[in-house]
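Session log. Operator J.P. requested a structure for one protein chain; no other inputs attached. Running the standard single-chain path with C-alpha cell output.
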Amino acid sequence: MKKKKFLIPLVFLMIVSLFLFFAGGSKEEKGAAATSEKKVEKKAEQKAEKKGVTLTILTMTGPWISGPVKQHAPDWEKKTGNKINIVEAAFSDLFPKIQQAAATHSAAFDMLLVANIWMGDMVGWKYVIPLDKYIKDPEVQYDTDVPDGIKKKNTFAGHTYGLICDNDNMYLFYRKDILGNKEYQAKFKEKYGYSYHVPPQTIDELIDVAEFFNGWDWDNDGEIEYGFVRSTKRGAQTYWYSFPWIAPYTVMPADKAGAPGVMFFRPDNMEPLVNTPGWEKGIEKFVEMGKRGCAPGLDWVRADVINEMILGHAAMAIDWGDIGPNSHSEKSLVKGKIGYAMPPGTHEYWDWKENKWVKTDEVHYAPVHCYNGWSWYITSTCKYPDIAWDFIKYMISPEISSYDVANPFSGFQPWRKSHLTNLDMWVKFGWTREEAKEYVQNTLNVTNNPNAVIDLRIPGAADYEENIYETLLTEILAGQKTVKEAMDECAKQWDDLTDRLGREKQLKFYREHLNLR
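Structure written below.
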C-alpha cells in the first residue's frame, strides 16, 4: 500500500458519472457483466500465442506499484514476443484518466493496475470486462490458493472484474519487547487494576495500554515516547484511520445483517449508518485515544505513523501492512521487535435493525479493508484480452507474487495462501522465517475474518468518505463540532449525495458491492 490518497471534486465526479451512466442508454438496460462477456467471447478468438502485440497499462507513477511491472515485464516479453507499454500517472490523476477513457470509449489502455475501490465505477461505465472464464485457468490456482477474503474483493455483482495483487487492510502493530516487559506489566496492573493482553484485544484495553505508555522514556534512549500514533490531518487519509475504531461497534454478524461487513449504509434502503450509536461510539473512542494515548497535535500524517513506529518513538499503531517491511529497512531501529495482530474489537455492537446494543462474551472483531488494494483489470476496449490475461496471469502467479509481496519496494502486501509457506523471499529481504510467518498469517487472518468490511466501491465513494465524512471528522478532532452534530450533518450530506446520484442506482451498486442479489 503506497500513496492511497485521492480527492475527486464533487461536481466533476457527479457530472462525469451521470454522463457515463446515462449516455447511450437503451430502454432495456442489460447487465454490465452479460454485455462484457459477449465482447470477451468475441475477442477470445485472438489467441494468446499471437506475437508482436503491444499492450498498454495505466498505473501509478513508481517506484511503488509500477515498479514490479517494470521489473517483470521484460521476462514476459521475451517469452511471448509481445510488448508492454506502461503509462504512469500521479495517483490523483489516475481516476480522472480512467473516467475520460471510459467516457470517450478510448482504446488508450488495455489493462489497468489501479484501485480496487474504483471497481463499482468502472463496472457501471462498462469499461472493464469480467474475468470469470480466465480465473478457471488451473495455473492461477484461484480455487485453492486465493483466500475467500480476496475473492470477495475481486467480485462485484457476482462476477470477478478485478484481481488483487496487493492486499490492503488495517491491523495492529505493537512493540513486542515493550508490551512484553514484566516490570511494565506489573506497573500497569497496579494502576489500572487488571493485566493487559499482549497484544490488546479490545478498543478500551488498547486505549488504557496506550495511555500507560504515553509520554515517558520507556525504552531508555533519553527521549520521550508515545503510546499510539495515527493520522489526524485533513487530506491525509484520516478517515481510513478512523474506520477500524468504528467497525467493531457498527458491523453486525452476517447472519443478522444479511451480508458480511455492512458498515456504511443499510442495504435495504441506502439509509446512512454514520449517525447511528455504533458509528458515533467508534468516533468517540478515536477521539478519546487522541486525548489519552497519543502525542499532542493534529498535523500527523501517514508518513509519521510509519516513521514513529520504525524509529522506536511509538508503542502501537493501527495501519496498513507497510510498517512490516519498513521495520526491516536500513532506517529502522526496531527490526524484529514489531508484533502483528487483529485490530482490537469490542464486547458490544449496535444492532441497527432492532435499534439496541448487543453484548458479546467473546471479542467482536470487524477489521476493515481500507482501500482494499491494487487490482488488475482488462478494459472493454482491449483488442487482445487473451494476451492481456496472459500477462496478468504471469504477474499474479505464485512465483512472481511471492517475490513482489516480500519486496519492500513493491508496495504490495501478501494475498495468496502460498505466501505463508513460500518464505524464502522474505528471508532474502532480511526477515526471519518465524517473523515472516507471523506477519503473513496475521494479514490472511484479517483478510478472512467473517466480519471484515470491504471498503466502499460505489459511485461517489470518494465524496462520501473523504470529501464529506473526513471533513466533518477533522472538525470533531479540532473541537469544532460534537460527534453527534457532525454525524447528523454527515448523514444529511450523504443522503443528499445519494439522491443527486440516484437513490435506486446507488442502492443497486451498494448491494452489488456487497454481492447481494
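Operator note: The chain has 22 helices and 15 strands.
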